[in-house]
Amino acid sequence: GIQVEQSPPDLILQEGANSTLRCNFSDSVNNLQWFHQNPWGQLINLFYIPSGTKQNGRLSATTVATERYSLLYISSSQTTDSGVYFCAVDLIAGQAGTALIFGKGTTLSVSS
Amino acid sequence: ETGVTQTPRHLVMGMTNKKSLKCEQHLGHNAMYWYKQSAKKPLELMFVYNFKEQTENNSVPSRFSPECPNSSHLFLHLHTLQPEDSALYLCASSPGQEQYFGPGTRLTVT
């Protein structure tokens, strides 16, 4: 099956620093999502980005589907950015009800 | 707040108990999912329902029994669980490909 690998597994930052999280996947995908899991377990949608680049405030993401990777950029990090960031993909185009395959996540800790 | 709600948020149950987890969405989504997140492991799919029909069962033990009475509600019935079933159980829904998750039920089996 498809493999989803995220790096780095852990990241420690000072408030205000920038960071880049990477997601590599082993097969062509039709859906790619980035999530932030807060300390209470809630998965918060960051980006739906099967290809291209999107920006939302201090966060942006780029997916290069032909090279099978996606990057999540966090600029001017804040303590509230702490948590686990997951990349998830699925393989089937244009169809609801297909499973997301998750990476193991990057655990980000931002200190003041 | 994604519009997907789950109850209860926390549950402690003995191995001989029977309990149910509930998931609800009024977003008009047709697909609903149960995922399991165990400590130190990636989230893994358990079940998928599309238009109330189960379309995927990811080799889940029969002590977990899903039910989808309509497109807005999804249940996970639990019976004779094992301590290793302790985990965060997450429900999701989707209108197409993008999935939206509920806050989860943190289950502890004693």
Write the layout of secondary structure elements.
The complex is a heterodimer of chains A (112) and B (110).
Chain A: E1 4-7, E2 10-14, E3 19-25, E4 31-37, E5 43-48, E6 52-56, E7 59-64, E8 69-74, E9 83-90, E10 101-102, E11 106-111
Parallel strand pairs in A: 2-11
Antiparallel strand pairs in A: 1-3, 3-8, 4-5, 4-9, 6-7, 7-8, 9-10, 9-11
Chain B: E1 4-7, E2 10-13, E3 18-25, E4 31-37, E5 44-50, E6 53-57, E7 64-70, E8 73-79, E9 87-94, E10 100-101, E11 105-109
Parallel strand pairs in B: 2-11
Antiparallel strand pairs in B: 1-3, 3-8, 4-5, 4-9, 5-6, 7-8, 9-10, 9-11
Question: What does it look like?
Answer:
The complex is a heterodimer of chains A (112) and B (110). Chain A has 112 residues and is mostly beta strands. Chain A is built from no helices and eleven strands. In chain A, strands 2, 4, 5, 9, 10 and 11 form a six-stranded mixed β-sheet that branches. The radius of gyration of chain A is 14 Å and the shape is globular. The mean pLDDT of chain A is 93. Chain B is an all-beta fold and 110 residues long. Chain B has strands spanning 4-7, 10-13, 18-25, 31-37, 44-50, 53-57, 64-70, 73-79, 87-94, 100-101, 105-109. The termini of chain B are far apart. The mean pLDDT of chain B is 93. At the A-B interface, strand 4, strand 5 and strand 9 of A face strand 4, strand 5, strand 9 and strand 10 of B.
Short synopsis of the structure:
The complex is a heterodimer of chains A (112) and B (110). Chain A has strands spanning 4-7, 10-14, 19-25, 31-37, 43-48, 52-56, 59-64, 69-74, 83-90, 101-102, 106-111.
Tell me the β content of chain B: over 45%
Structural class of chain A: mainly beta
Terminal-residue CA separation of chain B: 31 Å
Order of helices and strands of chain A: EEEEEEEEEEE
What oligomerization state is this entry in? heterodimer
Mean pLDDT of chain B: 93
Gross morphology of chain A = globular
The fraction of residues in strands of chain A falls at over 45%
Q: What is the average per-residue confidence, as pLDDT of chain A, rounded to a whole number?
A: 93
Shape of chain B: globular
Count of helical stretches of chain A: 0
The helix/strand order of chain B is: EEEEEEEEEEE
